[in-house]
Every structure is written in C-alpha cells, then in structure tokens.
Amino acid sequence: MQLIPYISSQTSFSEKSIQNTVELLNEDCTIPFIARYRKERTGNLDEVEIGEIVALKEAFETLEKRKVTILKALEEQEVLTNELKTKIENAKDLTTLEDIYLPYKKKRKTKAETARNNGLEPLAKIIMSQRNDDLDFVAAKYINENVADVDKALEGARHIIAEWINERTDIRNLIRRELERFSTITTKVVKTKKEEENAQKFKDYFDWSENLSRIPSHRLLAILRGEKEGYIRVKIEIDDDRVLEKVDRKLIRSNNECGAEIQLAIDDSYKRLLLPSLTTEAMNLAKEKADEAAITVFKKNLEQLLLGAPLGEKRILAIDPGYRTGCKVVCLDAQGALLHNTAIYPNAPQHNTAEAGHTIEHLIKKYAIEAISIGNGTASRETERFVKSLPTAKGLEIFVVNEAGASIYSASKIARDEFPKQDVTVRGAISIGRRLADPLAELVKIDPKSIGVGQYQHDVDQNQLKKSLDTIVAHCVNKVGVNINTASASLLSHVSGIGPKLAENIVNHRNQHGVFKTRTDIKKVARLGGKAFEQSAGFLRIKKGDNPLDDSSVHPESYSLVKSIAKDLKLNTSDLIGNSKELKAIKLDKYVTDKFGLPTLKDIVKELEKPGLDPREKAKAFSFDEHVKTIDDLKIGMILPGIVNNITNFGCFVDIGIKESGLVHISNLSDSFVDDINKIVSLQQQVQVKVLEIDLARKRIQLKKVS
C-alpha cells in the first residue's frame, strides 16, 4: 500500500495536491508556511486540510511500522506464507492488521494451549467437521495421563475451538458491528460511597443507561471520571442472545453431538474471550471519539481566547485584587515593561480606601496611565467598584480581565527569567496587565490546560491534547504575526520555523546588537539558517524599518515581484502600499509565473492594501451588574450582563460577576435550533442573560441568552 493512494482514499483532495503537500512536509516546511506561501503547490489547501494530511501521513507511517514488526515476528516463527504476507501488506487499518496477526501472536499460557499440549487438537478438528455422531467413542481415544476422562477430553477440545472462534476476523467484525450499533453503557453507584460529598458530582449517573454510540462526549468523560474516582461502576451491555444467534448461524451446520459441543464452545468463547476483548475495544473507541470531541471544543475555545481583542500599546495600571494580603498594583509602559509596583489595602479587613485611593491617583498621573486592568479573581468586584469611584479614574477605560493561569505563569521559569527580582504576586499582576494589552503575547507563556477553557481536559489523551493545542497556538501566532523587536522568546518560539532555541538566540542577538532594521538582518542570528529564514520571515514584522514590506505578511521571496509591479505603475514600493485605487487596477494575470500563481498574487495585493493589519478586534470595556455580588443576590427572572468564559458541546458558561459561572444550555442559546454553538457565541463575548434556575446547594445557575 502506498502513502498517496492511502491519503487520497480518505479525503477528497487530488493526488497532486497530496503529493506536493507531502513533499513540502518532507522538506521540513511547517503547516502555516505551506498554507500561506505554497498555495499553488497544494491546490490552495488551508491549514486544517494540510493538518488532515499530516495526521493521515502519521497514521500510515504507524501502520507500516507495525506491519514490518509483525512480518518480522512471523518470519521468526517460520509461519509466514505468501498469502499471509499479502493480507498483511494490504491491511488498511490497525484493527484489521491486529486481527490477521491474532492467531500467531505469542500468548500467555491459555486453556487452549494446555489442551493442545495434551494432544486434543485432532479431537477439536473432528468436532469442527461436524460429521461424527458418537463423540464419546472418539473422545475416549484421547484419554491419557493428563486427560482423566471423556468429559475432560471434550472440555479441552472446546477450549481449542473457543480460541479458534475468537481468532476469526469475520466473527470479531460481526460482534464489533453489533456493539457499535446496539451496545448500552450502564452505570451504578458504589453503595458504600453514595453519601460522600464528592460523590454528589456524579449523582446523575448513580443509575444511568444510554446507547454507547449516541452518548455525548462530555457525558462519557464525566462517567469515566466517576468510575476512576471510585464512585460509580461502568459496564457495556448488549443483547447476548441476539449476538450468539448470529454467531451460531455462522458456525453450526448440524444437529448432532458435534453441533452441541460447538454451541458450548461458542458460549465459552463469547463470554470468556470475545466479549471482554471487544467491549474493551468498543469503550476505547468511544473514549477516543469523546477525547476528539473534547479536544475540538478546547481548540476552538483556545483559538478564540488567544485571538481575543487586544487593547494595544497603552500605558496600563494593573491590579491583582485581594483581601487580607491586599491588592498588588503594577504600572506598565506601552511595551509592557514594568515601571513600578506596590500594594494597596482598600478591601476587608483593612478598608484603607483613602490611602489606596491616593496611591492609585498618584500613579495614574505620574505614569500617564491610559487604561486599568483588574483581575477577575477574589475581591475583583469590590476592587472594581473602588477604582471606579476615584475621580482620576473616571476618564479611563477600566477592564476586568480573566486571570486564569496567571498564578501558573507567575511561578514559572519564564516569569522568573523575565522578572528575577520580583516575587510571584508582582509577576501575576504584570500578567494581568499584559493580557489586556495583548492576550496572545501573554497567554502563550502559559500551559493551555491551565487557562481554564477546556472540557474535561485532564481526562482526555494528554499527548493528543498537547499536540492539538500546540498546533492551535502556532496557528494563532502566525495568523497575527510577531513584532520581532518586542516579542518575548515564548512568543517567538511558536513562529513557523523558529522553535525555543532559535527564539532565545533572536532575543540574545536583539539584546546584544539592538533592534532588527530589516528582515535580512534576521539571518545574522546564530544558527538561523536559510530554511528557518524561509519558514519564519513572512510571519515576523519589523515596525518602522528600512523596508515597508517588512511590516507585512508579504514574504521576502516576493519582494522583487512587488518591486516589478510598482515599477510598471511608475511608483515606488512605499507609494504602492495602501494605494487601493492602483492595487485594484493591477491586471494580475500579467504577473503569473511558475513560481507565483493567482492565489499568491491575490494575497500580496490584499496585504498591500492594509499591510500588517491585526486580524483581531479591539478590546471593549465592560461592567457587571453592581447589585449582584454573590449567588445569594440572584433572583429568577433577572436580566444580567455577562461574559462568555467557556464553551462546551452542551452550552456555554457565562461569568456574571460572581464566583460561580452560570450555564446557558444549548437549548437556551437561541429560539431556533442550534447545530453549532460557536455560530451563536464566542469566548469573551459580552452577552445579556436571564436567570432561569438557581441551585444553591450545588452552586449551579441556569441561564438563557437574551442578547
């Protein structure tokens, strides 16, 4: 089996597009680079489609590697025939491959193996022929020192037959289909733990039953978590009689004694071998699908969060609120550098509002503060009200910023390297301020799992989760572009072709030699070779540099083309940038070559119209209802402002300014049917919600989106 036909059989892409994409991947090109700058070769595939090819390429390579291992094992056993080799080479998935290998797989000592060693395999073959009507007579011939009597002989033969049945691919596939269509997942509470406080989280699953193929991702993951924590027992059930009847029809061809023995062997094989193995397989497949769905939710949430609206380069006063330990305050310049830090105590138990107010007003004036960022954690609402009451703050935009993960960042090596002389509380406040200025640049420093926008992120396959989230981070960073003269090593490390080591080298070079004035200067960075430059240059920006194209997504390999277009228009390159009238009049067909096709030319013209344009919206200030401070202040029917802070497959959670976020179930998102929640709401979206239900005991709030 060949790679290109394998991928082609599972996608709608042309073989030429697949072939060229695979060649680019083998040349160590990144997905963002291929999608943005090699459209002619891929047939204009986007990042998602290229990612699909990457996944299928990896799956194919895993399959082929397993085939090599199996063929080697069979050769060593001296059982490899041409027919068997062909079957293995033609296997299109791991399940089929493992089924083919199953009869030859080395096993721990089994009942069937013991029976073979006792000389009972010929008897098993006689029974399977189903032509003998006097099995007692035949079985008596196989009595020996290890086989006491006829019953033991027949029992041993049945063990061998049961193993043969278990190894039949057609029967395994029959049961797989039944499990896929008709199996049920059932749960029961562990009675000895039923009254424990933590068990109440799984109360809905104390006695639950649902078709396994239809169970939503979040519910399956919740059930499996409950099982892992020991509060519920989980079982996969199926109509055994229905399945056994189908297996019987495949194997039993007579009504004689042989048929009766085979019936017993079928029952044994089904209960002891087939069902345990295939229900585990079915559960693993269901878990894989649930993981995939949960990771998809996480990816969408993370992308929306990373591409959240930045305030931009403003002088920011940031506050990490608190009670007893006070509020940590930092002042940042327009590039996010720390200018000053202190602590104030406006909240309980000190209530030192006068001194705190004087401090804030002094800092606003001294550092020409343009915006205020307040973390949304403990004491956030009280601190927000306090700041808004200050005369000097009234002319400023005041933002409440999601601080999830700030404490993780503040204790990280990245934070220690950035601010070695500051303690974790100051670093946390700095992160809160920088998140307002540029969420992407700050959030890339934090493990995505700590940001708090996932759905059962600790229950899914961690390797797959990390791989998927790293892809999303890279996508967002390269979509926005990075200012090479101000970006941190953390941000630079996600740029196409860079990576952590080169990112450190870029920052060190910048510190030693000053800012980069042109993109070609990037080549002077230690260990940054031609390939890394090719992959990264288009995503790196140089503001106010020597070449205006360096602050755009136009790749340096296309500069000569832009210069040629400008010359034909009798303009300088700088005069062409932003000149919509001239750009729209360009006859692109004139510039099509083997290297530059229409997709690339259209991208260049679009970029020249608005070079370096940030695709993100601008940050907007927001205020919660001042009368709602805790869940006790809520009343059914209230209409409240809120911010969407998490999205799941079953709805979205909305921050309404109290400790507990409320759930807007998918059925309450719109008056019409919702097939995709992300079409209705997005992360950090400001919404109006109505309170439908309040469960004080479980601290749960049901909401309805009204606007």
Report on this model:
With 707 residues, this protein is α/β, with parallel strands linked by helices. The chain contains 29 helices and 15 strands. The strands form 4 sheets. The protein has a 5-stranded mixed β-sheet with strand order 6-5-4-7-8, with helices on both faces. The protein has a 5-stranded mixed beta barrel with strand order 11-12-13-15-14. Helix 17 links the parallel strand 7 and strand 8 (397-401). Helix 2 (15-26) crosses helix 5, helix 9 crosses helix 11 and helix 14 packs across helix 15 (257-306). The mean pLDDT is 95.
Identify the quaternary structure here: single chain
Average predicted confidence as pLDDT: 95
Identify the CATH architecture of the domain at 316-437: 2-Layer Sandwich
Structural class based on helices, strands and sheet pairing = alpha/beta
**C-alpha end-to-end distance:** 54 Å
Number of strands: 15
State the CATH class of the domain at 316-437.
Answer: Alpha Beta
What is Rg?
33 Å
Number of helices: 29
Low-confidence stretches: none
Helix content: 40-55%
Strands of the largest sheet, in order across it?
6-5-4-7-8
The largest sheet is: 5 strands, mixed
- Work out the strand percent: 5-15%
Going by CATH, the homologous superfamily of the domain at 316-437 would be YqgF/RNase H-like domain
Gross morphology is globular
User: Within the CATH hierarchy, at the fold level, what is the topology of the domain at 316-437?
Assistant: Nucleotidyltransferase, domain 5
